[in-house]
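Lab meeting, action items carried over

1. Structure of the two-component assembly. Owner: GW. Status: complete.
Input record:
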Amino acid sequence: MPDQLSELKHPVLKLRNITKIFPGVVANDKITFDCRSGEVHTLLGENGAGKSTLMNVLSGLYPPDEGEIFLRGKKVHFSNPSQAIQNGIGMVHQHFMLIQNHTVTENIILGTPQPFNLKLSKISNQIRELGKKYNLLVDPYKKIQDLTVGEQQRVEILKVLYRGAKILILDEPTAVLTPQESEALYKIIRKMIKEQYSIIFISHKMKEVTLLSDRITILSKGKAIATLTRGEASINQLASMMMGEAGQKEDKKNICPAFEKLGEKPVIKIKDICVEDWLGNQVLHNINMEIYKGEIAGLAGVSGNGQVALAEVLAGMLAFTKGIYEFDGKRIEQADVIKMSKLGVGYIPEDRKKFGIVERMSISYNFLMRDYTNSNFYNKFGVLKTKKIYKYAKSKMKEFDVRAASEKTAVGTLSGGNMQKMILARELSRYLRFLLACQPIRGLDINASGFIHEAILKAKNNGLAVLLISEDLDELINLSDRIYVICAGKIVGSLLKEEADIEKIGLMMTGVEVSSRENPS
Amino acid sequence: MIHIFFEKRLYSSGFIRIAITICAIIFALLAGGVFLYTIGVNPFSAYSNVCSQIFTNKWGIEDLLLKMSPLMLTGISVALAAKMRLWNIGADGQFYMGACAATWVALTFGGSGNSLMLLPLMFLAGVTAGALWIFIPAFFKAHFNVNDIITTLLMNYIAISLVDYFLFGSWRDPNSLNFPITALFPPAAALPMIKNINLHIGFLIGIFIILLIYFFLEKSRFGIYVNIVGNNPNAAQYSGVNKKRLIILIMMISGAIAGLAGVIELTGVHHRLQQNISLGYGYTGIIVTWLSRAHPLGVIFNAFFMAFIFVGGEIMQMSAGIPVAMIYLFQGIILFSVLGSDVFAEYKLKIKKTA
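Predicted assembly:
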């Protein structure tokens, strides 16, 4: 890595005193940031620290309220993303913006000027050449829907390269990748650096940040606190800088009511569960699993391998086509959400905004979801006891540290962390036997993540059975007593806490069976 | 260079929305004024003439409230469905079917002595007919996600043809000189009047229904269900609300209310079934809903406003000889500008000078 060399160079891109104010929030407060050619400059910060806003300003989505952008020494002004890409700045979004039933080539050239008679084969060859150069190997004739997540990401990167970007913004690129795929991405990044590209890397993951970055700029509450060069700070130092003071204080209240001990029967027992989707494709193949009280079972897997279906079956949202589902020793013939919730299933859904809340309803009313017969909230005619509900919501918000203007605030205005705490508060505050936590900390900052993990551990200690579904292997290994690995709708195997390591799980996530203890049956 | 661009508002308060709606209405009145001007009418004197006629004599106010009664009901009918993100474009058809069923009751049982039961029976029949008429689109919407806008709309044409079929057929009054109208109903089928004013109690029923719906939406379990399904169908699935059943139920209530409007108009105003008893009340209900953004209390105010346009149109028609199409033109412009104004509720217009 030409560290000294890039030190000597002028920065290709310079942001000076960028300020962006949204009503009530200073999202970016006089941020100065630059990027040289041939370097990886990481933006590190909690959610809401202003990373996305800054990148949106840079890529032309919002105009800044104040401040200037210089590109190769010249002042520029982007009023839309296409101007930014014309000037060589390309963003690879966290959520891919690809058309599923079009080919790679079609996706890449979409929106670029092309002659009337398209020569797709010629363009495909160009794309293949471009891919070869940077290890971005992907078949240009394949449709997006047939690609793995890692390959789709390569298409996204090719898309900006094809448009001639020299400065690439990668927004949490490894969030959806397996460890092996991430490794491949690092190689691609290193190769691009050698070719004098500039990479602005956004990530939460400390390890890869320290591994990849030439420089790291830490954002907190809209301000750039520090810019460090490689090797200047350890992982722990970075973390504490990023969190500020708030990270030191952890709330250690008893979060879950105590549950009595039962015999040593599993709370959840599923046998040979199969699920088909509406097209008749088999989504789950003969899933076997047992979860005992006081146990956290982890489920590892790349997203889209059947985790959601399994969670929905357990929560009663999805009917299974074959198999046996036993809850507390009782066989469930026809599950439905209300029934399972009454039996004691708490469910933190994977996509909290899409499923877990109703954004336009108040926090208080969101506490009413999943239980519509609670006599604390309804009188016998079904009329709401509003005062009681508000009081209840207020006390729960305090208990779970949900920060909002008031209990009547619309949930949609909360930050992701507060939203998740609200969902957790709702699910943990009922009679509970089994907690189903899907990607509980995805996209959350360190403070909120810590709080949620603590709550899950406390739930376990209070005798709940927990199923933790996550793509974050560190999270799974830290919390789980046993880790199941799912791939293509099948359980590839399970590992006890002691035998689990990232390499092994990563390999199993791709479908390779690794010698391990037998599945419990 | 001057840059003009839209910036998304993070939050648009109720105040901003109301203010923007009012601006849109003012804009519509100005634009409508241009049309008046082109046909040789001074818009300012026309508007002031309308205002003085309506607000300074008893007849004007009474007529306004009379027109407002069905609009409140069709408005709340459409608004209730809109709370679930459903569009009941068929309120007009349910209105006709309500009137039609009530007419059947009046013609069949009107002659018998039991006059005390006649009016309640007519109401029951009308409400049921409205609910059943929308059941068909509702069922297909709930189970097969068939577009509710199109199905409810098409049901209107069937309803109107059905009414014509009876009017030109077995229900035609032999003494009507061949007009397609039924015989006058017996006095027992007339809606009672409010004391001292020339206004039937349908007005009060409208207010009552709106308050009832408001209460249910805001303060009951039922309202929580509607809120969840309407704002986030995925969350409904997650939280165990039976979406299909709720869609059918809400649409049927919506249809019942529109049917009720039909019975009220029939028993309070016309006292016989004839063509064009609706004056497009069902469609105007859609505008009322849009103006009030489906808020039940807003429906009262906007039903008043749309009734004002109706009566104002009548007055202009009489005093300045303006064609009736002008009313529809006004309605169109208003709807157009309110829909268009939404962009200002979501976005801020910003102007910036750059070098």
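2. GW to write a short summary for the group page. Key points so far: The domain at 3-246 of chain A is CATH 3.40.50.300 (Rossmann fold). Chain A is about 30% helix and 25% strand.
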